[in-house]
Design goal:
Layout: H1 3-19, E1 36-39, E2 43-47, H2 60-73, H3 81-85, H4 88-101, E3 105-109, H5 112-123, E4 129-133, H6 138-145, E5 150-154, H7 159-171, E6 177-182, E7 184-185, E8 190-191, H8 194-204, E9 207-211, H9 226-229, E10 238-242, E11 253-257, H10 259-268, H11 270-273, H12 280-294, H13 297-317, E12 328-334, H14 336-348, E13 351-352, E14 355-356, E15 366-371, H15 378-395
Parallel strand pairs: 2-13, 4-5, 4-6, 6-9, 9-10
Antiparallel strand pairs: 1-2, 3-11, 7-8, 10-11, 12-15, 14-15
Helix pairs in contact: 2-12, 4-12, 5-6, 5-10, 7-8, 13-15, 14-15
The chain binds pyridoxal-5'-phosphate.
Length: 400
């Protein structure tokens, strides 16, 4: 037992991360989040790596709504919801989310990470089964770990495997069975096949939960998400999502579901019971963002146009892209150091993108995940494409 040895071990882990080319450096931004940002080391650059799909993060109406809410309600709540932390604004935001998604009610959390961390344990016990897509978000994996239900994992988007796992859960005598999937797989840009998932769920009388963080506000009719895209809003039992992406990019997570599920979560979900209520500014901004998103068909169509333009031109240029039907467009590189080098070159060319490597994606599948944004003009998309081609040639990515 040695305290010094512990600190040496931390240092050697850090050195290993760096020497494996996996170091995630944080670049400092000195402007608001937008289609362009001011990066401390690089000046003004086009931003192609924010979850700011509709370009609302620096929308003046949201900042004003947040300021007005703070003017009226002050800065913080200093309480969990059930003690003295529930404002009329919390209930308004939760009702607005529910009406946007067409559910009975919704419940907010400090983040979707907390929503996913708290959703399983109160609803399912050791007699039950959770069947989870292998690429589900880290917060789902953690939430499932905190729950006593038996765990089953199916190969990502593989419906035959999902069916096999459902059969296995049934054979193991599961009382209730919950299928859990991301609506959009954020490292790859693919949309879950909810129509098939819901059909299988019907066959096995299973429940369905969708984490729609990368879909709420942008995917499906009216931006109502992947259940709406597949016409299965009424079959999906639980939707979790975030205020931290398309809905203005502030912070806050939520769960939308039937009344009794939401009621039980208010009584039992640990991140709800034991963590501070969302602050007034986030509530005012969140309510205003739902309004902008509800009226946001023009933003969604701009986003779609930008994504199509980028995908076609990058494919023509010879890049290997992943994903389909979503403004996440990963440019596959493979080697982690090469991906980092490419991202660095792109920043020098005025385009801010980020290289993703292990442990965020599997070893050897490093990529630059681009994300389209309704705030970009066609000309800006074209500038990004030209920069990719230039950096692709100078790093050798395009000539392999
Ligand atoms: C971003 C994200 C989360 C976490 O949301 P926060 O509100 O930022 O905590 C959870 N699940 C998925 C699929 C996400 O993409």
């Amino acid at each position: 037992m040695s305290r010094n040895a512990f600190y040496d071990q931390v240092d050697s882990t850090l050195a290993g991360i760096a020497s494996d080319g996996l170091w995630k450096a944080e670049r400092t931004i000195t402007s608001s989040q937008g289609g362009s940002v001011e990066v401390a080391s690089a000046g003004e650059v086009l931003n192609f790596c924010a979850n700011n799909y509709l370009g609302l993060a620096n929308h003046p109406l949201l900042a004003t709504a947040a300021a007005e809410a703070m003017e009226q309600y002050g800065y913080g709540m200093a309480s969990v919801r059930f003690i003295c932390g529930t404002l009329d604004l919390h209930r308004k935001l939760e009702a607005d989310i529910a009406s946007f998604l067409g559910t009975d009610d919704s419940i907010t959390f400090a983040a979707c990470f907390d929503a996913n961390g708290g959703v399983f344990e109160p609803l399912l016990g050791p007699e039950d089964a959770i069947i989870s897509d292998s690429l589900n978000h880290a917060s789902i994996i953690d939430g499932v770990r905190l729950c006593k239900a038996k765990r089953y994992r199916f190969a990502t988007r593989n419906m035959a495997d999902l069916e096999a796992q459902l059969r296995q859960a049934q054979a193991d005598g599961a009382r209730h069975c919950l299928i859990v999937t991301d609506g959009v797989f954020s490292m790859d840009g693919y949309i879950a096949d909810l129509a098939s998932i819901c059909e299988l769920a019907d066959n096995f009388d299973a429940l369905v939960m969708v984490d729609d963080c990368h879909a709420t506000g942008i995917i499906g009719p009216g931006g109502k998400g992947t259940p709406a895209l597949h016409g299965v809003e009424d079959r999906v039992d639980i939707v979790t999502s975030t205020l931290g992406k398309a809905l203005g990019g502030g912070m806050g997570g939520f769960i939308a579901a039937r009344q009794n599920i939401v009621d039980l979560l208010r009584q039992r979900a640990r991140p709800y019971l034991f963590s501070n209520a969302l602050a007034p500014g986030l509530l005012g901004g969140g309510i205003a963002s739902l309004q902008l998103v509800t009226d946001g068909d023009n933003l969604r169509s701009r986003l779609e146009t930008n994504a199509a333009r980028f995908r076609v031109a990058m494919t023509d240029a010879g890049f290997e892209l992943a994903g389909e039907g979503h403004p996440i467009i990963p440019v596959m590189i493979g080697d982690a150091s090469l991906a980092t080098k490419m991202a660095d070159e792109l920043l020098g060319l005025g385009v801010y993108v980020t290289a993703f490597s292990f442990p965020v994606v599997p070893v050897g599948t490093a990529r630059i995940r681009t994300q389209m944004n309704a705030a970009h003009t066609e000309d800006e998309v074209d500038r990004a494409i030209a920069a990719f081609v230039e950096a692709g040639q100078s790093t050798g990515v395009l000539t392999r």
